[in-house]
């Protein structure tokens, strides 16, 4: 039986969880701006959320949780800086405003979180490092989640984050909103951050769906902010075309592949909007990887059924994507399209070359894709072994259930 105290504790924990999703990035960004120390900012933000779990059950959830958390974290940071001489000197320097005409704030960015993402994606950092650091700092993703998004080991990602923070400190890279003329050079990083936030939320867990909704919202803001840039439209189109299929991606916790999804349940309004956005982007005649990915998604979304999918067109689009943004994951997806367009042996040959290269070692979709092609080719024994290999590597329960069901069918 649940006691009233248990219910109250649950409400407080839910309030803290909601504040983490909504306020983490702003709290950390405020502290970085105050101290210039990324590690200190994250530590003190974590302290503030821990304090909330202790204080809010006693005093009640504050009317403005974000302000309470920011003030608490700021006070912790100031206390820690005052305890050492270097920190005290830093506080004295912070009392003097610094004006830099090349880094003047951009009031035109109408969203605080998007402003922070642009600020975090500093071009002085390597591309992967700035994206990873932004995901960790502002989106609140764990190091393990970021490592999975980059298909790398968690210790290696942790080291990448450490090196990025060290470079910021040693080079004195300022944490300031870029001026309007500097936005285009940061756009690629911002797009990558939004795309990875969307992907992280694109599963069946209600708690993570907020990330997908936030990524779509920010992409809409970005399209309005930079109307003459085609790639934001391409990214938003890609998100909407994927989001249109969300209700059919799982069935009672089991993944449903695209060819078996109930297309009558796809959100036609989102598909129509996504295709229109893609058309608007393509008219600008500056093709980028997000536009190509959106075009692939549109081929699937507008096909009347699985049999009517234009696989030769999709294979051609993947070839273009491999030219614009080469990666082994693109090559794997291209192999599937080639298998469907030109025959299973052609696709299997490409998958086998990828396997031999070792570039996707540990990535469960490589053996899962090979298993599916082997199954279609009637090579049941080899398919079973490949499914078992994929099952060992699958990162989520949803994917493990799907692979298990495939094994049971064989």
Question: What does it look like?
Answer:
The chain has a two-stranded antiparallel sheet. It contains 19 helices and two strands. A hairpin with a 2-residue loop joins strand 1 and strand 2. Helix 2 packs across helix 3, helix 6 packs across helix 9 and helix 7 packs across helix 8. Among the domains are: 96 residues; 101 residues, Serine Threonine Protein Phosphatase 5, Tetratricopeptide repeat (Alpha Horseshoe). Helices cover 71% and strands 1% of the residues.
Keywords:
71% helix, two-stranded antiparallel sheet, Serine Threonine Protein Phosphatase 5, Tetratricopeptide repeat, mainly alpha, 410 residues, 2 strands, transcription
Share of helix among residues? over 70%
Largest sheet: 2 strands, antiparallel
CATH architecture of the domain at 310-410: Alpha Horseshoe
Low-pLDDT stretches are 93-106
The gyration radius over C-alpha positions equals 24 Å
CATH class of the domain at 310-410: Mainly Alpha
Order of helices and strands: HHHHHHHHHHHEEHHHHHHHH
> What is the assigned CATH homologous superfamily of the domain at 310-410?
Tetratricopeptide repeat domain
Number of strands: 2
Report how far the terminal alpha carbons are from each other.
45 Å
| Portion in strands | under 5%
Number of helices: 19
């Amino acid at each position: 039986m649940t006691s009233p105290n248990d219910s109250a504790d649950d409400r407080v924990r839910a309030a803290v969880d909601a504040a983490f999703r909504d306020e983490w990035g702003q709290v950390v960004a405020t502290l970085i701006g105050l101290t210039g120390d990324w590690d200190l900012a994250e530590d003190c933000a974590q302290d503030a959320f821990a304090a909330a779990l202790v204080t809010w059950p006693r005093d009640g959830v504050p009317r403005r949780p974000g302000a309470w958390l920011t003030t608490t974290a700021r006070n912790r940071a100031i206390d820690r800086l005052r305890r050492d001489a270097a920190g005290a000197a830093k506080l004295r320097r912070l009392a003097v405003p610094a004006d830099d005409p090349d880094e003047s704030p951009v009031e035109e960015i109408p969203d605080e979180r998007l402003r922070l993402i642009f600020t975090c994606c500093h071009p002085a950092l390597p591309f992967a490092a700035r994206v990873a650091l932004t995901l960790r700092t502002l989106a609140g993703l764990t190091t393990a989640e970021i490592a999975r998004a980059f298909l790398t080991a968690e210790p290696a990602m942790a080291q990448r984050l450490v090196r990025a923070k060290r470079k910021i400190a040693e080079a004195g890279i300022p944490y300031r909103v870029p001026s309007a003329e500097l936005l285009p050079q940061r756009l690629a990083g911002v797009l990558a951050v939004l795309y990875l936030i969307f992907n992280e939320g694109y599963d069946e867990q209600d708690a993570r769906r907020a990330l997908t909704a936030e990524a779509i919202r920010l992409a809409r803001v970005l399209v309005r902010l930079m109307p003459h840039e085609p790639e934001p439209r391409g990214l938003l189109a890609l998100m909407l075309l994927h989001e249109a299929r969300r209700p059919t991606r799982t069935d009672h916790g089991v993944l449903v592949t695209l060819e078996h999804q109930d297309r009558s349940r796809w959100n036609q309004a989102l598909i129509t909007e996504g295709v229109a956005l893609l058309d608007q982007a393509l008219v600008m005649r500056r093709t980028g990887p997000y536009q190509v990915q959106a075009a692939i998604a549109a081929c699937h979304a507008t096909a009347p059924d699985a049999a009517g999918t234009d696989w030769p067109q999709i294979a051609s689009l993947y070839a273009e994507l491999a030219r614009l943004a080469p990666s082994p994951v693109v090559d794997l997806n291209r192999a599937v399209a080639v298998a469907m367009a030109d025959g299973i042996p052609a696709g299997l040959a490409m998958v086998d070359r990828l396997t031999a290269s070792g570039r996707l070692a540990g990535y469960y979709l490589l053996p899962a894709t090979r298993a599916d092609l082997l199954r279609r080719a009637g090579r049941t024994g080899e398919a079973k072994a490949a499914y078992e290999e994929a099952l060992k590597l699958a990162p989520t329960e949803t994917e493990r259930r799907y692979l298990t069901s495939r094994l049971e069918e064989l």
